[in-house]
Design a protein that fits this description.
By secondary structure, the chain is mainly α. The protein is built from 28 helices and two strands. The protein is 69% helix and 1% strand. A two-stranded antiparallel ribbon has the order 1-2.
């Protein structure tokens, strides 16, 4: 039996890659309609995306090959989808992130925040995977501090003051409990980093792939939506949800791994807990000292980042005229978008110097005179080329090509008609069920691929039953980022798992509740402040099929 399974596993990729297209062929042979041919391509892409028999970005290129061959869209119409405005927005955000990472600004901000908040394990909600090495160093230092303290007490003949001073009666049990406590703290701190990375990314439009997919799909499927999903509106909707999720995630990790104790969590712990906190604090201080003084390059990157955020928020805030209205609006046309802002800041990163230019020409040495007057820029193309994940740009483009193919082939309209009976189901129930479906599905495949596959279907369904498409698309987009259960679900999960503190069973039992927390938080957000921000109680004109076609 085992040999048979290994034999099947050996040829799994070959079978999926070559047999799947053949098995799906009866679809287009028996029903040679245009929308069926489009469905064939999408199903094939879904299988390849879920199994990853070829790289995700390569699968995303399939519409560029198959849509023209199957006469769904001509090559020019397909290829233009791979570098749309939304792709440029995401690309700009990625390059800015590379600049922040290159000069360690993210590390300085994270460490300064931890030093300000406190070094207790219960308070550490770092939001990026780069915090894991620091967390590991903190745990090791805490363990070393405990060992040294215990050895000192033994040398002084004060064994009765050791944490397990009832060694005569219950020493082994106390030791076992101490070991379990150490393991639990390791698990909680490791999970809090990777969970915070996933949750924090949902707060901004460029923070994670599914958010960008939503904006692009809105432009593609509903061209008259008038930029309703932009940086400011998304932040207003998703940021409060992120804060609530972080709080609930912290409480859940506390209860599960650290037996939530109010007194210890808020600074009223034992002397031993205070020593642990001091040890962790020293590690943070040492890591911060390694960064050196705040450099000119870090200050420049920080100014560029703040400028980016300010221009994004003030472009078209909604409640007041933005800078866009000064000279970049003519009738219904808005010439500048969030992508324009992102590319402008990218240009600055390749221009602004990384060191102060020296103007004292007279007092310069011979060596200083030989060096160029203008120092190197904050970023160069070699760094950007190496650090930017270019595959995600193709993945987004493939999603937009799929959405375009659905519209052009009539597949969206056909799916909408099949879902018309759902108009009898309460909208809240539809949203909750679909959010859970997406949260489960995204555990097994890329969150960008999940969003790409589901959003056109949900848009068609919403139109057919007279429901505001955003009422379904918003929660499902956020749910696609809630992959908390498996090590392979997201890069942060994989990095956290690699440190060896966690078992798969730990991630599954913690992640199940995290998925439920995430879906319920999104359900709350979309039914409260989301209704006000996006006017979800009304079926908008831009979602009307006849309105779009005219």
């Amino acid at each position: 039996m085992a040999s048979a399974l290994s034999y099947v596993s050996k040829f799994k990729s070959f079978v999926i890659l070559f047999i799947t297209p053949i098995l799906l062929l009866p679809l287009i042979i028996l029903m040679p309609a245009k929308f069926v041919r489009c469905a064939y391509v999408i199903i094939l892409m879904a299988v390849y995306w879920c199994t990853e028999v070829i790289p995700l970005a390569v699968t995303a290129l399939m519409p560029a090959l198959l849509f023209p061959l199957f006469k769904i869209l001509d090559s020019k119409e397909v290829c233009v989808q791979y570098m749309k405005d939304t792709n440029m927005l995401f690309l700009g955000g990625l390059i800015v992130a590379v600049a922040v990472e290159r000069w360690n600004l993210h590390k300085r901000i994270a460490l300064r925040t931890l030093l300000w908040v406190g070094a207790k394990p219960a308070h550490n909600t770092a939001t990026t995977a780069m915090m894991l090495p620091i967390m590991e160093a903190m745990l090791q230092q805490m363990e070393a501090t405990r060992t040294v303290a215990e050895l000192e007490l033994v040398d002084k003949g004060k064994a009765s003051e050791l944490p397990g001073n009832q060694v005569i009666f219950e020493g082994p049990a106390m030791r076992h409990r101490d070991d379990n406590d150490k393991k639990s703290i390791c698990k909680a701190m490791t999970l809090c980093v990777c969970y915070a990375a996933s949750i924090g990314g949902t707060a901004t439009l460029t923070g994670t792939g599914p958010n960008v997919v939503l904006q692009g799909q809105m432009h593609e499927l509903f061209p008259d939506s008038k930029d309703i999903v932009n940086f400011a509106s998304w932040f207003g909707f998703a940021f409060p949800n992120m804060l609530i999720m972080l709080l609930l995630a912290w409480l859940w990790l506390q209860c599960l791994f650290m037996r939530f104790n109010f007194k210890n969590s808020w600074g009223c712990g034992t002397e031993r807990d205070n020593k642990d906190e001091k040890a962790a604090y020293e590690v943070l201080q040492e890591e911060y000292r390694k960064l050196g003084p705040f450099s000119f390059a870090e200050a420049s990157v920080l100014l560029c980042f703040l400028l980016l955020v300010f221009l994004w928020f003030s472009r078209d805030p909604g409640f007041m005229p933005g800078w866009l209205t000064i000279a970049w609006v003519e009738g219904e046309t808005k010439y500048a978008s969030d992508a324009t802002v992102a590319i402008f800041v990218v240009f600055l990163l390749f221009i602004v110097p990384s060191q102060k230019p020296k103007f004292n020409f007279c007092s310069q040495s011979l060596e200083e005179r030989k060096t160029p007057f203008y120092p190197p820029a904050l970023l160069d193309w070699k760094v950007a080329q190496e650090k930017v994940p270019w595959g995600i740009v193709l993945l987004l483009g493939g999603g937009f090509a799929v959405a375009k193919g659905c519209e052009a082939s009539g597949l969206s309209e056909w799916m909408g008609k099949q879902m018309e009976p759902l108009h009898t189901v309460p909208p809240a129930a539809i949203t909750l069920i679909l959010s859970l479906l997406v949260a489960v599905f995204t555990e097994c495949t890329s969150n960008v691929a999940t969003t790409t596959l589901f959003l056109p279907i949900f848009a068609s369904m919403s139109r057919s039953i007279g429901l505001n498409p955003l009422y379904v698309m918003l929660p499902c987009t956020l749910s696609a980022s809630f992959a908390f259960m498996l090590p392979v679900a997201t890069p942060p999960n994989a990095i956290a798992f690699a440190y060896g503190h966690l078992k798969v069973s730990d991630m599954v039992r913690t992640g199940v509740m995290m998925n439920i927390i995430g879906v319920l938080c999104v359900f709350l957000a979309v039914n409260t402040w989301g209704r006000v921000i996006f006017d979800l109680d009304r079926f908008p004109d831009w979602a009307n099929v006849t309105h779009i076609e005219t």
